[in-house]
Every structure is written in structure tokens, then in C-alpha cells.
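Allow me, if you will, to draw on your knowledge of protein folds for a short while. The matter concerns a single protein, recorded as an amino acid sequence and a row of C-alpha cells. Could you please explain, in whatever detail you think fit, how the C-alpha cells follow from the sequence? I remain grateful for any guidance, and I place the record below:

…
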Amino acid sequence: MSIELFPSRSTRFRTDETPPPQSRPDLAFLARPLFLRLTEALQLVATLLHECRKMENRATRHERSWGVPKLFFADRTAQEDWQAKQVPQATFPEPFVSLLGTSFPKLMDAWDRLPDLLDDALSLLAESLDVRRMARAILGFQEAALAVPQAHELAGILGMPEEEIWLVIHPTARAGFRVALEGVADIAQLHVLLAEQLSGDPARGYLAGRRPHFDVLDACQLSIPTEGVVATSRFQFYRPEALRPDGTLPVGFAGTSNWYWGHETLNVVPQQHGERILLIGEAVLPKTWEVNRRYSRIAAEAKVLDVLRSAEVESWLRTRCSEYRPPSIPMKRAA
């Protein structure tokens, strides 16, 4: 049974006293027929694209029969001359999709309806986690989206990890946090949200340091237009295999092979015992980037569910690092 980790966005982001909109579970229920129609349309479009590819292969078979690859000649001069004489081709699946219309009217109808169905579905998916939960429960929906390049944004949203627990460990600071995420698409966005959520009083288990500027936080969190907002990384994100036998992270650029990069989706972070494990350290070389959210319509949030004690972090490191030795605590001298 799924657990509601976040309150309704209608209460978190409201700035007036107007009555709340229709409840999110009702909206999810009403969205289901649209998602079912879109699933069927995507499956039909996948078949149409397959037919287009077959037609393209037949059209180029003559070129291949002469043993000359479609876009390559052994002689550079001949290759350049051939490319210069080519008429620009329409983007696949054109011109083949237009030629198949009379032969496959049902497939063409799905192709014509797809843009409007996708736009409606993306708008609904941005409304709440309840709607996305409903969409992910529809059998074959994500697989159908993955099979159609025109639905890459839909496939990414359906595959976005939500309602999961993240264990974030800072081995050097002996700090750890259990975090829940909603609407977070990639590592770059996670950098900003964690820098906000994990910063605080070290006496309470948080990490000392500067929080992101509110413009950067809003750009990464709210579904508002942004342009020219620049973020700077506060932490370095590491894969679990970066952890060394003594419980430390690589120094400097020695750990680059185990860094996470901003363009990567959150699915690259592995799960262990039902939690996604993320190791963090101080930024080796703080990176800056212009905020350009992958799914700008979806509001995002990170929420700290639990702050681990130093002893809990040490125990976690000890079970994974054969040479781990907790730092000694100096004894107080008698007065």
C-alpha cells in the first residue's frame, strides 16, 4: 500500500484563501480514461512507425545491394560530392507516414490524435502525485510510451522515481538523512533541493553551509517560467561504489569515475534494501549551470523524513567498510 508522503500541493503552494480545487484523487480517477485512450493510441503509433521503418528499408535496399553504406564512401572526395548533391530529407517517419495513410487508416487516425492526447496527458500529470500514481498503475502505459520517440517526455515522467525513500550519507561529516522526493527529474535539480533541505544546525545533525538563493530554489521547485537563473553545486554526488574500505570518499578528482552528473535521471541511483543510496561530499570543483528543468510543468519537492545520529551513520559505514574506524573523541581533562 502506498504511503502519502506529502500533503496536497493545493495546501502547500496556495497563497490566497479561495476554496481548494477538486480533490486530487477525484482528478486522478477522471484522468484514467484519457490515459487508457493514450495507451491504445501509442500502441497503434508504434505499429505505424514499424511499418514506416520497413518502407524506409525497402527504399534504401537498392543502395545497400551495391555494397555502399547509405551515408559513407571509402573515398572522402566522393563522399563529400555525394553529400553535397543530396536533397534534404524530411525527418523520420516522413515521408513514409504520409504514404501509408490509405493502407492503414486506423494507425493514421492514432497518429493524428497523438499530439492532442499527449498534451492533455502531460497537463494532467503535472497536477498532482495522485494523477501520476494512477498513470503508473495502468498496465502497459509506460512501455507504450517508451516505444514511441514522440512520447519521450511522457515516458520520462512515468519512469520518474517518486514515493521512494532516499538514504543520503555524508561520510566525512558522519551525517545521514532519509529523504522523500516528489517531481524531481534529474541530478541537477536534486543538487539544489538537497542543498536547501540538508543545510542547517550541525548540532541537530544538519550540514553547515549556504542555502541556494531563493530564485534558484524557485526555478528548481515551482512550475513557473525561468530564464537566466544560474545554480551552483554545493555537494559532490557519488555512486555507492565510491566508498573506500576505510569509510571515506575519494580525494579530489580521484573519484570522477563514480560521480553523478547533472543530466542523469534519478533512476541511475541504485536501490539497496528498498532505499536509494546517495553518497555526498563537499564539492570538489563547484559547477555552475543555467537551470533548465527537464519537466518544467511539474512542481518538485524534497522533504527530510529523518535525521540520522552520528552513531547510526558510523554503524552504516562499519557494515560496509572493512577498515572503517570511527574518529576518536578526545577525552576531557580533569579540572
